[in-house]
Amino acid sequence: MMNNKILNIIKNIAISFIALVFIMGFFSQSIVNLFLPKVKVSIPKESAIERTVNVIGEVKPKETLKVRLGGNVIVKEYYLNKGDEVKKGDPIFRIDTNYGLKNDYGDLESLKIELEKEKLNIDRLKNKSYIIDKKSIDLLETKLKKNISEFEDEKKLFKEGAITKKSLDMRKISIEELKTSLEIEIIKLKEKKSENEILIKEAKNKINKLQSKIKNIENNKNFYSNISDDGIYYSKTDGVILKNNEVDKILYRDKVITEVAKTNGLKYVANFKEEDYNIVNNARRIRLENVQSLGTIRVVNISQIVNDNILKLEAEFDKDYKDKLIIGQKIKGEIVKSERINGTKTISRSSIIPNGELKEGSRGKVYIVEKQKGILGEEKIVKEVEVNIKGVGDKSVIVTGLESYKKPKVILNLSYRIQDGKKVFIWD
């Protein structure tokens, strides 16, 4: 009986020991895992990254009419204020007719007639004939040749005693007189030609001045708005008054007196950093905040002039924007460029430690988790991997260097405890 009791005790102890060993073996890995760094992992894939440029733009009219006048004026009153609608032909302002501008651009028609006269004059000068002068020279040359020939004959006669020395000397004098006359005629012809060239140059200069004056007057008439005889400016277009200048003060020539937004459309104008040029230029679309009904808008122009590392863009609205936008409205926008590179992997920005600045063309390191057999079973070991950065997005990075690993598990939540060769626990 006693032996049976002892046997039962030993049996119970053995069973308890085996159960304890089983329980310890079952929970030992879990207990160890409690003290290991917990990591979140992701398997990188070949996918696109997005780069976003945030801008704050302003709604502006596509085209404006800036009213300038061709002289100094004083505005006595404005009939319309900023924001008022205006129709073509409506009065906008009135100037003091006792001061300044009189709408005198000069007698344009008289200048044009004078220009035609000068053109005819220069044609006449260019076609001027010197036939009479040339014939006089030809005649003198002929006489001179004849006298020289006769002089040679008379020299022979003089040697034979047929004529006197006085006759021979008279021939010499006649030849010299002909030479002098010929030289004078040649000089006169040259002087006439030189004088004519001077007259041509003067005519050309006068024509240039007249053309310049006529062009200036025509440009002024196109550039500067006209005032009626009663001193009132009437609108040349339908639109909205953007701004007016001051009243009862001298407004000098070229000052904008009033500006009218034409009704042929609106545009979105925004500034962005020079470093974002490639993103903006390639994306060419802007997503507007709080105006989702308009969708994205199309960038139609990017300025090529950099001012303090800032560039300007202009975009057009593809959809109807009536009753949704107002001139001067400030709207935030996003310009998103998507990029994908074949043969690469995309990882989270949080999973890479760059060697310096995180930018395209630089290098960095990531940590992946590999499985190994350990004393208590399968273990997760950290491995450091060098990667090349091929592209940087808002949330993701394109890299190479992970191609040799089959579905590598890249650690997302890096910390000082994550080091090469360390054990970790994958936290799902």
Number of domains: 5
Largest sheet: 9 strands, mixed
> From N to C, what is the helix and strand string?
HEEEEEEEHHHEEEEEHEEEEEEEEEEE
Shape: elongated
**Gyration radius, in Å:** 49 Å
Low-confidence stretches: none
Note the gap between the termini. 57 Å
Structural class: alpha+beta
Q: What is the total tally of β strands? A: 23
Instruction: Please report which band the strand proportion falls in: under 5%, 5-15%, 15-25%, 25-35%, 35-45% or over 45%.
Output: 25-35%
> What proportion of the residues is helical, as a percent range?
25-40%
Total count of helical runs of at least 4 residues: 5
The residue-averaged pLDDT reads 86
What does it look like?
The chain has 428 residues and is an alpha+beta fold. It folds into 5 domains: 1-34; 35-49 and 342-426, conserved putative lor/sdh protein from methanococcus maripaludis s2 fold, CATH 2.40.420; 52-61 and 262-339, Beta Barrel (Elongation Factor Tu (Ef-tu), domain 3), CATH 2.40.30.170; 69-101 and 226-260, RNA polymerase II/Efflux pump adaptor protein, barrel-sandwich hybrid domain (OB fold (Dihydrolipoamide Acetyltransferase, E2P), Beta Barrel), CATH 2.40.50.100; 108-223. The protein has 5 helices and 23 strands. The strands form 4 sheets. Strands 1, 2, 17, 18, 19, 20, 21, 22 and 23 form a 9-stranded mixed β-sheet that branches. It has a 6-stranded antiparallel beta barrel with strand order 3-12-15-14-13-16. A 4-stranded antiparallel β-sheet has the order 4-11-9-6, with no helix packed on it. Helix 2 (108-126) runs antiparallel to helix 4. The radius of gyration is 49 Å and the shape is elongated.
